[in-house]
């Protein structure tokens, strides 16, 4: 079936590119064998419209022209479908190849591979991977396991409001959210959505792994101004804990919590299998500390300790 469709699309593209005048549906149906075999006019019309949309999605510029009788004709002018020369050197080609590899295990794998094939067809040089020799089997990856990623990515691209159920780390049940999505950011292996929370009337950041159920699109325009990319990224980093504004004092079991130790500005042994660490932090440290379970205890500040306790109680209720 895939081969038959590819052949049909190729024949349609050749017909549209090879004509000097617009061709009607009737003429196209008489020129392409697969269309002749369509059982009815309705079946042909559905097949033709799908094929036309698929070719446009692949990048073919198809014009629709009405004749004096009001009937529609179609053609693809060669000058409109001729790509300009792609001037990339070997290093730039290698960088694009490396970027495409990053998405091989994510939902963007097909789009990344397709874009790379189009560039190569347009003249981008085939370049070897300069990182392969240095790093051997090590390759970059951006894991995307959350089902919410793809619909949110499309909603960010199309500027469409969305609704979803979101469970905060210290909550027993998820709550509905109405969000105007701005962008997705990956931080410490986790994906976050930055956007405008309509009910709260403020910008918020949501961790995708805490979105439950389906992400649903809503009609209508955004009600809040979308900030520039730099501002959004700074918001994600701040809410995820990247920007340190305070210092926490914790007890950590000896031999555990190496990610915490790597961020500590001071560490001393307390004895009995425990160490004391000072860690600079921003928003989100409470969620991170909970992941280490009984190996960590918060000594100060009191509000951070209370947040960690609330999160642990919420987990215990499950």
By DSSP, the count of extended strands is 12
Silhouette: elongated
Percent of sequence in beta strands: 15-25%
Q: Mind summarizing the main beta sheet? A: 5 strands, antiparallel
Give me the number of helical elements. 12
Tell me, rounded to a whole number, the average pLDDT.
81
* Rg, alpha carbons: 27 Å
pLDDT < 50 runs, ≥5 residues: 129-138
N to C succession of SSEs: HEHHHEEHHHHEEEEEHEHEEHEH
Helix content: 25-40%
Helix/strand class: alpha+beta
How are the strands of the largest sheet arranged?
7-6-5-4-8
- Give the distance, in angstroms, between the N- and C-terminal Cα atoms: 48 Å
Task: Describe, in short, the structure shown.
The protein is α+β, with helices and mostly antiparallel strands. The protein contains 12 helices and 12 strands. The chain has helices at residues 2-18, 25-31, 33-36, 41-57, 90-102, 109-121, 130-135, 149-158, 229-240, 258-263, 285-290, 302-317; strands at residues 23-24, 63-66, 72-75, 162-166, 175-187, 190-197, 202-207, 211-217, 246-253, 266-271, 274-281, 296-300.
How does this model look, in words?
- Helix 1 packs across helix 4.
- With 318 residues, this protein is of the alpha+beta class.
Can you tag this structure with a few keywords?
4-stranded antiparallel sheet; 40% helix; alpha+beta; 24% strand; 12 helices; elongated; single chain; 318 residues; 5-stranded antiparallel sheet
Write the layout of secondary structure elements.
Blueprint lengths: L1 H17 L4 E2 H7 L1 H4 L4 H17 L5 E4 L5 E4 L14 H13 L6 H13 L8 H6 L13 H10 L3 E5 L8 E13 L2 E8 L4 E6 L3 E7 L11 H12 L5 E8 L4 H6 L2 E6 L2 E8 L3 H6 L5 E5 L1 H16 L1
Antiparallel strand pairs: 1-3, 2-3, 4-5, 4-8, 5-6, 6-7, 9-11, 9-12, 10-11
Helix pairs in contact: 1-4, 5-6
